[in-house]
Amino acid sequence: MIWFWLLAAGAQCGLLYLLARAGRALPQREARQAAENCTVPDEKWPKAALIIPVAGEHPNMAAALKSLLCQDYPRLLPILITATAEEPAARLIRDLQKEYPAARHVVAGKAQQCGQKNHNTLQGVAAAGKEAEVYVFCDSTHLARPDFVRCLTGPIVRGEAAFSTGYHMVDARDEQTVTLAYAFCVLLLRLLQALAVFTQPWGGAMAMSRAAFREYGVAELWARNVVDDCSLAGLLLGRGVHVCLCPGALLRTEAAGHALPVWRDWMERQVLFLKFCVPGQWLLLGLLALLMALPPLCAGLALLGGLLNVGSAAAVFTALLYLAALAAVLYVWREFLPAPPPLWRWIWAYFCASAMFVRVYCRTIPARGIIWHGLSYTVGQGGTVLRMQR
Q1: CB of 50 within 8 A of CB of 68?
Q2: Measuring CA to CA, which residue among 172, 132, 122, 184 is closest to residue 153?
Q3: Largest interatomic CA distance in the chain
């Protein structure tokens, strides 16, 4: 039993170390891409449509949208889309247009056969028409650097890829367990993106050429699907299409007092999207959940047994050895955060994230639908929307 535990613990720490090394390589890749972008004169950058579906009343939305509307891209067409003209996000957009008159506001109407975000996004693409050669898709609640669009479109402009993606990082503004656990989950996904085998488009920061959008039937895919990025990932994986990771296209997500239900629901959606759209990766995710949860559980039982004098000295030693190795690896992970928390809080957040991951994954096994922004979607193979209820 101890040997099996050692094998699982070694695999866990090894994976975390491998991801840390991949993360440490990202700044070099970012610097190389930035230098290559600098060789492209302004007149060579094609007109790009910045398509931003907007919904809800997120407290950071105004600042996030301003950061996207202040991009240094030479020819940018910002298009902000809401489902209705009366919702709070629509009123915010009208206020922003006074300061940024180039921004267009599109009222998409309510979706009927796909996710509302997909519907909004497609209406934004339709509004761009033939004016743009590149489509850039962004979420509305993350802060962007002024060169975000250049970073994201660079590989497309240079002809290196037809699809590119960025990601985001959580700027934890407190040291509460849920906030740090959320930051860990996002960091884990970001570092997985750094491995080529797991690089796939993320809807909060992705770009593609207009030609690729048409060639791969993205509009037809999204018009019947519950989600944009995972459905596109499934399509591109099936076609063997390369997606270029742009480390410089890294959005910042501020988080403080992050609520447990919000974190849990977010995590559940991420797992469900993979289940419906990329089932092979969902199965791998199950192995990852087991790998994250089993070694800490065994360590806890071994230490408890030692305290109660019912366990072996070898089990206690193995538990301490594992915890020391885990602490060393997670210490390295702290360097990827804007403000590294105390190590003990970070380790506890890791344990909580592992437990939540297992709970959420188990809940997704029998699931046949997704609840998102107040809409209930019954989902079929490939993420196709079979029925929706408001």
Answers
A1: yes
A2: 132
A3: 74
| Sheet strand arrangement including 385-389 | 369-372, 375-379, 385-389
Q: Which residue, among 351, 124, 72, 107, has the nearest Cα to 228 in the 3D structure?
A: 124
β-sheet bridge partners, residue 379: 385
**Calpha distance 129→210 (Å, rounded):** 10
Residues facing residue 77 across a β-bridge:
49
d(CA 370, CA 377): 5
**Rounded to whole angstroms, how far apart are CA atoms 54 and 68?**
13
pTM of the full predicted structure? Answer: 0.94
How much is the pLDDT for 308?
A: 79
- Domain ranges across the chain: 2-14+282-381, 16-259
The kind and range of the H/E element at 250 are strand 243-255
* First vs last C-alpha separation in the chain: 50
Residue 249: how many other CB atoms lie within 10 Å: 31
Q: Which residue has the tokens 């761009």?
A: 128
Residues 182-202: tens digit of each pLDDT: 999 999 999 999 998 899 999
pLDDT in tens, 326-373: 999 999 999 999 999 999 999 999 999 999 999 999 999 999 889 887
CB 342 within 8 A of CB 167: no
Bridge partners of 234?
none
**Quick one: CATH architecture of 16-259?**
Alpha-Beta Complex (3.90)
Q: Which amino acid is at 283?
A: L
Residues 33-55: tens digit of each pLDDT: 999 999 999 999 999 999 999 99
Q: Which amino acid is at 149?
A: V
Strand partners, 201: none
The edge-to-edge listing of strands for the beta sheet with 76-82 is 104-107, 76-82, 48-53, 134-138, 205-209, 163-172, 243-255
Instruction: Write out the E strands in 173-263.
Output: 205-209, 243-255
Q: Is the dihedral of CA 104, 110, 112, 115 positive or negative?
A: positive
